[in-house]
Amino acid sequence: MLLTVLLCTLGLAKAGYEPTWASLDTRPLPTWYDEAKVGIFLHWGVFSVPSFGSEWFWQHWQGAHIQAYVDFMKKNYRPNFTYQDFAPQFTAEFYDPYKWAQVLNASGARYVVLTSKHHEGYTLWPSRYSWGWNAVDVGPKRDLLGDLQLAIRTLTPHIHFGLYHSMYEWFNPLYLQDKAMHFQTQNFVKRKTMPELYEVVNQYKPEVVWSDGDWEAEDKYWNSTGFLAWLFNESPVKDTVVVNDRWGRGIPCHHGSYYTCSDHYNPGVLQPHKWENCMTLDKRSWGYRRNAPATDYITIHDLLTELAMTISCRGNILINAGPTHDGRIPPIMEERLRQLGSWLDINGEAVYQSQPWTHQNDSLTPGIWYTSKGDAVYAIVLKWPQAGILTLGSALATASTSISFLGYSSGPPLRYRMVKKGLQVVFPPMSEVKGQWVWVLAMRGVNPTPLLTPPQTFMSEPSHSNFIHFMQ
């Protein structure tokens, strides 16, 4: 009898997750990801050489033949110049992964996602499935991906290392042949994209696998569920890895450890499933643009607003920066990341390990977003209140209420009172608090006002503007 029970137990353990969405969706989200809240996205590749328009440069130039890209090439490059001719200029001579790790650490991020391969097909590691079109064979002649994961795990082990991987490649002949056959063949999947995905996971052990480039074909073509079953059952990161939702047409916003739904997804209301707002410091591109004016970069206040909205509604934020072809994080991007980190140094208590509160934003005063942790409720205030007096319509004081101001530790608890409109809080003098942009109240012993509508049980649909990167 004991032997039978043991064999059954071993059989169940071996079976693990089946290659079906019904089974894969039962896997619990590893706790580190929800607690992390803040990640950094890095879009880096051959597209960083022309650094014009966007990381979709090759497709816009020789696929869609967008006039601005065609004219740019005619004006600046010799006739018959090919996209592959850019690769030797992807030099990365200033690339110091340990300096990158320091900047990432200074940003307050708890995970990083690097583009291991974008839609151009060029891999940042020496993939045996991308011979002659990888960072060791042509360009910097070094393993860019491996160097960064080593630096992160050596210098900043509290930051989880992850990678982005594009399923499709714009001009790969095998992919185009499968596409011409209406994806009834899988030559590209079996000979290129899936073998390299298994390879990169086994070699670098990423704790985030951020899939993309999936939307032209169904998940059955990509064999997505087969890969994910292996990832969750047998891979070297099976216990800690998280994946997004871009595994085939119709899959985003429906299946995955967390949902991205679309780029810049930020619904502004509580979502029933863990999600991520992947967004950019450059409003118009994920890759570096040499000709981007300063006004095309979001301000630190814009960034903190995105952060507050996102985490209050059960999201993580993944903030993108685009390094240069020579391996630098542009100063304006580094500045934003360091500003974010200085804010988190003061206010991280309201961010890391936080959970959504009963209310996500205040019912009376605009620009206030709530999080909670334990017995504390945090009000993230985007704008300093007029005359230093803030009225909250969603919080009720009790006999045990106490309110403090993060970054004002030397001062006494804040004064407050209940008025007809809500809970009125008196701010300390601005000159006596740390921080310049967004401020946080830590409240204990407060109750929420009743909800007027129950939380929604379905994911919000992405807005049309979320798809901007496909059109640029």
Textual characterization of the structure:
By secondary structure, this protein is α/β, with parallel strands linked by helices. The protein has two domains: 28-353, Glycosidases (TIM Barrel, Alpha-Beta Barrel); 368-448, Golgi alpha-mannosidase II (Immunoglobulin-like), CATH 2.60.40.1180. The chain is 29% helix and 18% strand. The protein has helices at residues 2-15, 21-24, 31-36, 57-63, 67-76, 97-106, 144-155, 173-180, 187-204, 219-222, 224-233, 300-312, 331-347, 468-471; strands at 38-42, 111-117, 160-166, 208-212, 242-243, 275-280, 315-321, 368-373, 376-381, 389-392, 395-405, 416-419, 422-426, 439-448. The strands form three sheets. Strands 5-4-3-2-1-7-6 form a seven-stranded parallel β-sheet. Helix 7 links the parallel strand 2 and strand 3. Helix 8 (173-180) crosses helix 9 (187-204). The chain is globular. Residues 1-13 and 465-472 have low confidence and may be disordered. It catalyses: a neolactoside IV(2)-alpha-Fuc-nLc4Cer(d18:0) + H2O = a neolactoside nLc4Cer(d18:0) + L-fucose; a neolactoside IV(2)-alpha-Fuc-nLc4Cer(d18:1(4E)) + H2O = a neolactoside nLc4Cer(d18:1(4E)) + L-fucose. Residues 12-349 form the Glycoside hydrolase family 29 N-terminal domain. Pfam families: Alpha_L_fucos, Fucosidase_C. One of its GO terms (biological process) is glycoside catabolic process.
